[in-house]
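Thread: "does anyone have the structure for this chain?"

Original post by V.I.:
We have the sequence but no experimental structure in hand. Need at least a predicted one for the grant figures.
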Amino acid sequence: MSTTPPADDPRSVTDDGPVAFVLGGGGILGASEVGMLAALLDSGRRPDLIVGTSVGAINGAVVAADPSAASVSRLTELWGDLARGDVFGGSLLAQTATLVRTGTHLQPQAPLRRLLADQFGDTVIEDLAVPFQCVAASIERATEHWFDSGPIVDAVLASSAVPGLLAPVRIGSEHYLDGGLVDSIPVGRAVRLGARTVYVLHVGRIESPLRPPRRPWEVGLVAFEIARRHRFSTTMTALPEDVTVHVLPAGGEPMGFTDRRQFRYRDFGSVPGRIRTARQATEAYLLEVAR
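Reply from O.Q.:
Generated one for you, tokens below.
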């Protein structure tokens, strides 16, 4: 198990104020966040707060339950379960049947709920080892909703309900969709909750330049990316002077925002490489900032 480095270690932590880990959304690309978490925890950094969106809510909740190196092993196993299990399984025929039956989405919600239940059981957010919040988009109110209490499985499932892939999640009288629709990289939320040092774990897309769409299917992507990045960049430029934000590197060659590989949500072959590359890149970054 990792421990805090001694004072004369170049990895020694000197973060000021409450520390937040902010984990953004991004589907299968979220495997990069596991590598970033491994590097952070191995360096002795521990969060006082974790805020997550979509796949970042899944990764973040695991660490909030146990902010130690053991959580990285749990996450690695969880991503393996995603690859081997039926969460995003089924043939094209089965997906088509689900879409025809529902008219709205390709995958049933139950397998992901079972996977989350295996991880968290009946745990509520209030009982996690580290304060945790995740965001989802309320359909009825057309706004963001932050989950800071109640069953962790419901909250994370709501935050991860990708439109068209999974059905909206009903909690009480409201229905929720993926948190990436309203706050894909929620740095602002962490700052409002009191964080003064923020580590941003993202999936690498913000590193890719945008360009005008060239094909019909790119039009929606460009529009979404503009909205997504605008909120992040606006938040970053408006940060209080006493807040330090570290945007961790995903490593490797940035994936273009129109690269179709990011939408192959069942292609888990790249997961080990993403974890490894992000870990190495983040380790190098943390050593550099510690100098």
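V.I.: this helps a lot. The chain has nine helices and eight strands.
O.Q.: and Residues 1-12 have pLDDT under 50 and may be disordered.
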